[in-house]
Write a structure and sequence with these properties.
single chain, alpha/beta, ornithine cyclodeaminase, domain 1, 11 helices, 14 strands, ODC_Mu_crystall, NAD(P)-bd_dom_sf
Length: 324
């Protein structure tokens, strides 16, 4: 029996750049993928937390991410979330690879956000935007840093401001971004009003951004809240915005930003959200002076698309050279 390749976080770092992850997501969305039909995530309770299972299938492969969520680990100095990704051949369902799921997640989440932000900037009613003048990120953890790095990999970014509650973490994030050649600094919530793109990547369960905090026509990407009881955006921002989600089906099941806005404003209807396939096809029309909000929860097809991309690059790198 052939050994199943084990793809470490170090291998992922070596073979898959943020720009390549964005390309893998874009290719999947343009390939005829039905995001609305992707499998639901499965949560299974455990004594120390829960399992999170994310199965998906593409024309070429099948895969599942198996993650554990252990809230108590933060007190022990251990990661709250750990994960592995299991990749299979689509036709025989034989195992093809075991991929570090934690690094896969920190790679694919900002890649999906970058696709959304790029699409919303291109749909700006004032004319297509091909860069970011002022990027403000609420949050100072790994996802905050990776979102900046991924956006900067596909779009020119002039300045970056990191806003967080813990000065030491903010300083560390700023230092990391500066080492990567970005013009980054620390700021506060008032900086969001001058930004053309705002990313919320926080662990807060209550809103951190309202309509008054963003400029007319700004693009907001809210990626930190997971579950119907958690939200990063105030209802007034969600109600005023043009909305894009990964898929309407997953948003109904899990998006707390949308559910919270609906609950806080009975009798007022939200704008009908577009999904990422529609955005990539250029079918999203933004309203003048209205903010645009992308709010994501994470979907299984995203992990599969990036995992396949990693394995394809790995195969090309390890294939023997042809001789003539």
């Amino acid at each position: 029996m052939t050994a199943v390749p084990l793809v470490s976080a170090e291998t992922i770092e070596r073979v898959m750049s943020p720009a390549a992850a964005v390309a893998a997501i874009t290719t999947a969305l343009a390939s005829g993928l039905d995001v609305e039909a992707d499998h639901e995530r499965v949560f299974a309770p455990l004594s120390a937390g829960e399992f999170l299972l994310m199965p998906s299938e593409s024309p070429d492969a099948a895969g599942i991410k198996v993650a554990t969520v252990a809230p108590g680990n933060t007190r022990l100095g251990l990661p709250k979330i750990s994960a592995w990704y299991l990749l299979f051949d689509r036709n025989t369902l034989q195992p093809a690879a075991i991929v570090d799921g934690t690094r896969l997640t920190t790679l694919r989440t900002p890649a999906v956000t970058a696709v959304a932000v790029r699409g919303l900037l291109a749909a700006d009613p004032r004319g297509p935007r091909e860069g970011i003048d002022r990027l403000v990120v609420l949050g100072s953890g790994p996802q905050a840093v990776e979102h900046v790095a991924t956006l900067a990999a596909i779009l020119p970014v002039r300045t970056v401001t990191i806003v967080g509650r813990t000065p030491g973490r903010v300083d560390a994030a700023v230092a990391t971004l500066r080492r990567r050649g970005l013009d980054a600094g620390a700021g506060d919530i008032g900086d969001t009003r001058g930004a053309d793109v705002v990313v919320t990547a926080t662990s807060s369960s209550t809103p951190v951004l309202a309509l008054a905090d963003v400029a007319p026509g700004a693009v907001v990407a809210a990626v930190g809240a997971h579950g119907l009881d958690h939200r990063e955006l105030e209802a007034d921002l969600v109600i005023a915005a043009d909305i894009v989600v990964e898929a309407r089906s997953s948003a109904v099941r899990e998006n707390g930003n949308l559910a919270g806005a609906a609950a806080a404003s009975p009798g007022r209807s939200l704008a009908a959200p577009a999904n990422l396939v529609e955005l990539v096809r250029g079918e999203v029309v933004r309203r003048p002076d209205a903010p645009a909000v992308y709010t994501g929860v994470g979907m299984a097809w995203e992990d599969l698309a990036v995992a396949q991309g990693i394995m394809e690059i790995e195969r090309r790198e390890t294939a023997p050279e042809e001789t003539t």
